[in-house]
Amino acid sequence: MAVLIKNGTVVTAEGEGKADVYLKGESIAAVGEDLSPESGDEVIDATGKYILPGGVDQHVHFSFTYNGSKVRGFETSNAAAVGGTTTLIEFVNQEKGRGLVETIEDYRKTDADGISMVDYAFHMVMTDPRDEVIDEIPAMAEAGYPTMKLFMAYKGMFFHADDDAILKALYKGKEAGVTIMVHAENADMIDVATKKLIAEGKTGPYYHAVSRPPVVEAEATRRAIYLAEMADAPLYVVHVTCREALEEIKAAYSRGQRIFGETCSHYLVLDTEDLARPDYEGAKYVCSPALRTKEHRDALWEAVDRKWLNAISSDHCGFDFAVQKHMGRGEGKSFADIPNGAPSLQNRLNILWTYGVCEGKISRSRLVDLFATMPAKINGLHKKGQLSAGFDADVVIFDPDYEGVITAANNLEGVDYTPFEGFKQKGRPETVFLRGEKIVDNARYIGRRGQGKFIAGKPFGASYEW
Ligand code: DUC
Ligand code: ZN
Ligand code: ZN
């Protein structure tokens, strides 16, 4: 069945204008003026609405485990749909002693296929950098997984990676067109500061930020850039949060290195002071890197506007407050025991629109680039993230006139809180199509479990284009 969306304003990464959008089967058949329906087509009048490509969230955690506590999984992916995101990219931690492809494919079969309500792809997280694992990187890319992250943070945890692993991954990744990503924080600096704070009795959630200040992120970002320089390979820095790390990325880019990065919605609107909220509510805001001050938020908004950063992700992590976020409370416990991460799958577009577009920090076109187009290109998802003929018919009809308040009470993330509780919201995704099928109608999820499908990424994504 075909759908013709008429009279809306189509927003792309290049600009915007009045146009109709024709969806036929799973693809966009045409974008243009005065398109006519065929008999039997559904026609939607989008007068006064914006038409955006379905979002691509390149940074979600549906399998992350911290101190034995696990996040909510793909069964909550309808939260992405109502938030206007139609493709998710999940980080899968390699299991020790196992190969890369087998780890992702086992996880995919048991935890994503037949469950996900939006389309999905995967990044590998390498945790066991044996020679045969490094040698498997090209096969991983050929299997549809052309991106791999390494955690420079988290000393003592099985997923921590040292410089040796990162450099080997950069060398081998470059041969195969794999984009190497890093979570850039200096693990030793955090470890020493954490132990010192705990010894001083400074154990509450606020000290999470004190244990990992911007210098921790700047040091690791610079080191990763040097490693990428040595390998002459591109590098992607996930969740950039501070001015100092941004400066490292900009400097490397202007020296001619292919260094790229993203930030995440919570770093643009939340504050270090949120970690000091009473009644242990500060624990809701424990994520890594830590939340920053206004000075850094301003720097991030400028960076996303000026293309110094090229994507805004959620870094969604569905730990609940009542039990999981309380793991740092009690005798002998500290902020270091609180699972890292916050739920934000549903509100990425709402935050970017209300606090970015409506406050004049980014244009609608810039939003589309950061929310959908660039994340698709970086990850080699060649039919996602654009409103053009031949692309997947993943489309959001956005109502700019809606006004509301964000609350966990009407959230589908399956978590008992949202870090954006009480935030004003302007505009909302009213209708969402996933490959031509309507999955959100009048801002309510109407799709089916298992409707999403796996999308294989192609190697040599945008970080290789110069
Ligand atoms: N940081 C988070 O806040 N959550 C998941 C993993 C990470 O690095
Ligand atoms: Zn991270
Ligand atoms: Zn993350």
UniProtKB/TrEMBL annotation:
Stretches assigned to the Amidohydrolase-related domain: 50-437
Pfam families to which the protein is assigned, alphabetical: Amidohydro_1
NCBIfam families in the record: D-hydantoinase
Annotated InterPro entries: Amidohydro-rel, Hydantoinase/dihydroPyrase, Metal-dep_hydrolase_composite, Metal_Hydrolase, Metallo-dep_Hydrolases_sf
Keywords annotated in UniProt: Hydrolase, Metal-binding, Phosphoprotein
Family, similarity comment: Belongs to the metallo-dependent hydrolases superfamily. Hydantoinase/dihydropyrimidinase family.
Modified residues (N6-carboxylysine): K149
PANTHER family recorded: COLLAPSIN RESPONSE MEDIATOR PROTEIN, HYDRANTOINASE/DIHYDROPYRIMIDINASE FAMILY MEMBER
Modification after translation: Carbamylation allows a single lysine to coordinate two divalent metal cations.
CDD domains: D-HYD
The name this protein goes by in its record: D-hydantoinase
Name of the gene encoding the protein in the UniProt record: hydA
